[in-house]
From TrEMBL:
Annotated PROSITE patterns: CYTOCHROME_P450
Protein name, per record: Cytochrome P450
Coiled-coil features, chain-numbered ranges: none
Cleaved signal peptide residues: 1-21
Pfam family, one: p450
Predominant subcellular localization, coarse grouping: membrane
Similarity comment: family membership: Belongs to the cytochrome P450 family.
Taxonomic path: Eukaryota, Viridiplantae, Streptophyta, Embryophyta, Tracheophyta
SUPFAM superfamilies: Cytochrome P450 (SSF48264)
Domain of life: Eukaryota
Membrane topology: Single-pass membrane protein
């Protein structure tokens, strides 16, 4: 009897496991192939991105397999989903079924305590801490400082020049703004070292995570370690400044160091500060630089849009005494200029897509997505859907005159739901101020007729967009 009882204790869990496995096997995996082990479809996607055919590659895949399909990306089995329902599913997950997860390469380079990796209460805690500095009420106080960086940049790198290359200059500008406003890092050799390692770090963000010498991924990992070391030194200095009575809102780092929990201890750990500093550097530097560059390209190609933007910005300039800085009310008047930016973000979203990780077996649209798999979504799939945005290939800023007419989770350049980018307002402010000064101080035309771009992984215009420029100050002096 004891033997039978002991045997049943062993047998019942085994039977339960077999039944569960049998039920799971009855559910179908999505159509598609996982491809070659480790490499999978990663190279195909990366090549398509650099050839500016990634959207076509994804669209053809969707036509072949439908709205749900499996593949392998960056070393992990992945399910690609798209459409309004898919976006809502991704962005409204409560963290029990899906966790926010980037590719292994991004995780290893940026760290596992950044917002891209955190879920549940940890995500909410760190996000709220970042939002305390990045919310509009707080950013209003930094418009003048941001404007000063933009004025200095244009004086140093644009005035007196006949030709400039836009993208690298915009990257320099956005990095300087981040260093000044978010990290309190002033101009000089230290900032130059930061940007050097930072650019190397970005190079392998989307790559196959094989850490071999002389690969992009290996160089990025080494640069990431150096950026983290510099960030630790900066945090130590800021902590000492706070002890001496420095303002807790002089920059993002001092703000995060000052936030206390119920136990009076720091609410955000040092690793979380470092990893999120690196995330904001990566997200805020490249995306804003690319957006401003694409606006410059559009204004050179579309006379109607250019005239409308110029008219709006000239009205704001002429309404103020000479030399007076912009304020929050001025930015609120730049409605058309921001709609132009929004339409560019619709047609050429800087962020191609993103990943989530399943925390349990999930049934989606009748298919099984096993625990531990990645879910991959692509921004352009709803942005270029003619049922959502009529004539999607036509550039039309008036689409955004009535935000209520745009279905929720269809326009997602900054994400959506609880995962919407906390730096949205920051990016909007720096974009609008930069465009204000560009169109009121310069005229320009493109130096090359090629209007193509490649993704690496963000969109990069041909030759980084060289343009011929003429200063309006020079034109005024001649007249």
């Amino acid at each position: 009897m004891n033997i039978l009882f002991t045997f049943s204790l062993f047998l019942l869990p085994l039977l339960f496991f077999l039944v569960k496995r049998r039920r799971r096997s009855l559910k179908k995996l999505p159509p598609g192939s996982l491809g070659i082990p480790i490499i999978g479809h990663s190279l195909n996607l990366l090549w398509a991105m650099r050839a500016n055919t990634a959207e076509k590659w994804i669209t053809e895949r969707a036509k072949r397999y439908g709205p749900v399909s499996k593949l392998s990306l960056f070393g992990k089995p992945t399910v690609f989903i798209y459409g309004l329902a898919a976006n809502k599913f991704v962005f409204t997950s409560d963290g029990t079924k899906l966790s926010n997860q980037q590719t292994e390469s991004v995780k290893m380079i940026l760290g596992d305590r950044c917002l891209l990796e955190l879920s549940g209460e940890d995500h909410k805690r760190v996000r709220n801490a970042l939002a305390s500095f990045l919310k509009p009420d707080c950013l209003k106080n930094y418009i003048g400082k941001m404007e000063e960086e933009i004025r200095i940049h244009l004086e140093m790198h644009w005035q007196g020049k006949m030709k400039v290359t836009v993208l690298p200059l915009m990257k320099k500008l956005t990095f300087n703004i981040i260093c000044s406003l978010l990290f309190g890092l002033e101009r000089g050799a230290r900032r130059d070292v930061f940007v050097k390692y930072f650019q190397q770090m970005l190079g392998g963000m989307w790559s196959i995570p094989i850490n071999l010498p002389f690969t992009r991924f290996n160089r990025s990992l080494k640069a990431s370690a150096k950026v983290q070391k510099l960030s630790k030194e900066l945090i130590c200095e800021k902590r000492n400044e706070l002890k001496k009575g420095a303002s807790s809102h002089q920059d993002l780092i001092t703000c995060l160091l000052s936030i206390r929990g119920d136990d009076t201890k720091g609410l955000v750990s040092e690793d979380e500060i470092i990893h999120n500093v690196m995330l904001i550097m990566a997200a805020g530097h490249d995306t804003s630089a690319v957006l401003i560059t694409l606006i410059v390209r559009l204004l050179a190609n579309d006379a109607t849009v250019y005239e409308a933007v110029l008219r709006e910005q000239e009205e704001i300039k002429n309404s103020k005494p000479s030399g007076e800085l912009l304020n929050w009310e001025d930015l609120a008047k730049m409605k058309y200029s921001w709609r132009v930016a929004m339409e560019i973000l619709r047609t050429i979203p800087p962020i191609f897509g993103g990943f989530r990780k399943t925390l349990e077996d999930i049934e989606y649209e009748g298919y099984l997505i096993p625990k531990g798999w990645q879910i991959f979504w692509v921004t352009s799939m709803t942005h270029m859907d003619g049922n959502i945005f009529p004539e999607p290939c036509t550039f039309d800023p008036t689409r955004f005159e009535d935000p209520a007419a745009i279905p929720p989770y269809s326009y997602i350049p900054f994400g959506g739901g609880a995962r919407i980018c906390p730096g949205y307002e920051f990016a909007k402010i720096e974009t609008l101020i930069t465009i204000h000064y560009l169109v009121t101080q310069f005229t320009w035309k493109l130096c090359c007729s090629d209007n193509c771009f490649r993704r690496d992984p963000l969109p990069v215009p041909t030759q980084n967009l060289p343009i011929q420029i003429v200063s309006k100050k020079k034109q005024e002096n001649r007249s």
